[in-house]
Amino acid sequence: MFKIKFTKKTILLLTVFIVLSAIVFDWNSGQVSAATEKCEPGPWTCSHSYSDPYRCDEFDVYRCTNNSCGNEGGAIEQGQKFFMCVTHSWACSNECYSRDYSNTYHVSGPYDPDSIEPYDGEVPDYHICPTQYNNWNKDVPITECRGMCYPAPIPNPLDDPSLEPKNQLDETGYKLPVNFGWDDLTEIVSEPENYCTVGSYQFYIATTTSDNASGTTKIVSGNQLQEITDSAYKLQCELETGKEHQWKVKGCLDADGVDCGEWSELQNMTTSYSPELYSPFDPDWGGDEAGHPTQEEISSLKWCEMEDTEYYQEKYFDGKTYYKPLSFKVLVYYSETDECHDQLYKFGECQPKLLTAPQIPVPREGLPPNELVDNGYFFTKNTVYAWKVAACIDKDGHDCTEYSPLWRFNTGSWDLGTVLSSPPDDTIVPVGLPVSLGWSSPGSNSFKYKVTGLTSGTTNNLNISLDYPQLSLNTVYEWSIQACSDYETKECEGSWGGPWRFRTTGKAPELNSFLGDESIPVTFSWQEVGGAKSYILHVFGQGLDKEIKTKGTSAALGYPDLKQELSYSWRVRTCADEEGNICGEYSGSKPLTTLRMSGPRNTYPENEGKIYTEQRTHVVRWSKVRGGDYYQYQVSYVNPSAEEENEECYPKAIIPETITDQDGSTLLNLKCLGDYEWKVRACIDENCQEAGDWSDTYKFSLIMGENPERESGLVPCGRTQDNIDTSWDERDACQFKHIFLLIRNIIDFILWQFAPLMLGILVLGTGLMFFFSIRFQEPLFLAKMKAVWRSAGIGYGILFLSWTILNLFLMLIGFDIGVFGEWWKF
Questions:
Q1: Any residues with CB less than 8 A from the CB of 565 and at least 6 apart, and which?
Q2: 3-state SS, residue 433
Q3: Taking Cα atoms as reference points, which of 242, 313, 311, 234 lies closest to residue 273?
Q4: 115, 87 Cβ separation under 8 angstroms
Q5: Is the pTM of this model over 0.90?
Q6: CB count, 10 Å around CB of 223?
Q7: What ranges make up the beta strands (E) of 16-153?
Q8: What confidence tens digit (pLDDT) does each residue in 190-237 have?
Q9: Other residues' Cβ atoms within 10 Å of the Cβ of residue 88
């Protein structure tokens, strides 16, 4: 442990060390500061004080204080700006910033200006001082043109002569389309010191009576809405006819109509009721210059859909309200001579084309324009046309608006190509007569034609017709067409359409085979011949020579022309007319041998089958034979059964041969129980002079049914089976005597079945009436009931007496009936 003794000398040395350390430290610090920040040269001299500030430099600075347009008070401020420095040197020059000295130390800065005043320069009109210069800067801010600073353009009147294309006016308003103009802002904003430009104008128009408040906005580059150089009208089909509109415009710096200035004052304008033309577009709207549409655009004249207006409602007083025109009148001229179009010139004057317009009760957006569709032959090449349209209130074109502006278009030059269409270029498949040569050639108005080896000529139609005897049957011809743009076949194309070839009908058809089916009636058939309108079938042989005219490819021939098992020949020829007068050559003949009809098959009942008497109908059936329109059958009763007691039934009783026109069945009235045999054959005629083979002989039996009581009833005769509970045979044919049995059966039914039921009802009614007579104290009830029962007893007695007398009568005439009969069985 040692002790330090502080003396005056020690204290002095320590002080010197501290000072030197501070100097060294200050030097090092100054070196670092000078390396990073240096003071700008200035007029001020450093002091010997450690902390006395001095001003290194000062300079002018600028900033934007108002970012509005120059003509609205845009401003720039100017001030002075400086750095602050201090020194730790006992001696320094006025170049305190120098790197050669280690005594410069940058304390702080820069500071805001210590003096501010307005800048002498002003923000030019239509410019703004940009916000990027809102902070102090050594450089003066560069102002920029801004569209929002532009003044409102001044609208021009719609009849201003400077407008191109020009507007047209009638008594109801300006005809659509309408052009709009205004003064050019470029001349104003581009003055010296401004040097601004106009990149576009924003145009706005709205129908004042419309619910659509947004209106229509268009961006245009010039100082009018429409230019003659425009390929289409900028407001095409967007303005309503016969309506008041308001419009305004403003100038914009950019080309997209985004950075714009003030709107002009609203201008009023009323449109005419006449239609607005749509296509082909006329760039100067009826001036001397004509449009140059494409060939596709020339395919139709179009005008805009007419909107809902009061004009049409006011014209009608028939109880209906019409919102749109009912028709349009279209006039077309040759523009260079103002002559009426040839297809419209009728009765010595130009007759407009009248088109009926569909009625739509409410206006709709996006409706297609009305149009007169060209069929390809209304307009031709290298011609200038003029056209206009009027809208009419009535369907007859009498009450109409004024015509639209007269628009013009030049069709230009194109190839009048000719496309042949019919008949096809084919020499294999024939065509019928008359032959119609057809073609298409849009823009052509006349044609030359030639048919090789036959004829040539001119026509204004798209087809020519050739018939017999100009054309021969079954012959090949060649034809060509040349298209012309005029109507006199003088201005024609150099090339011909075609040649094409065709073959006329009349070729003999190919006959079909019968394939083993030669039964009468025989169906003859053959292959179809192209263009044939009829055929003639010729059948001959065996004394037959017959022709049959038919429009189809088959014909049938039967009895008595054809008979079975005989040989014939047949052939066919093709005819070009329906009457069979213009015909070609016959085909080669084919042989035919007719067949005999076979016996019917699939009979019913089956062999050894049974028919029951209880069946309501006794039927025999067979399959139909082709060609058999009639059938002959034979039924024989060959053996009675043990149950048969009728003496009239005896073996070998033959039912006469019967002919029927039923296709495959007949009803038999069989009475005798026992065995039967039957057969059938087909006949062509009703007398069976031309008959087929007999079928096999079939057997069946008629037997009594198991439930004969089912056949009981009032009628005592003509039934299919006998009722075993009666003493007579119900199968007997009905005779006069059976009338008494029928009367007896009726009386039996009334006396023993119906009358007891009525007596029971009478007893029940008597009881009810007795009950109510006591309750309501009816004194005459007993007298009334006695009279009713007396009448009932008399009636029943009369019935019983009649029944007894009739039974006695039947017993006397031979019926096995007791006097009282077996009434309990009824």
A1: 593, 594, 595, 596
A2: coil
A3: 242
A4: no
A5: no
A6: 20
A7: 54-66, 75-87, 104-111, 116-118, 127-128, 144-145
A8: 988 889 999 999 999 997 765 555 789 999 999 999 999 998 999 988
A9: 19
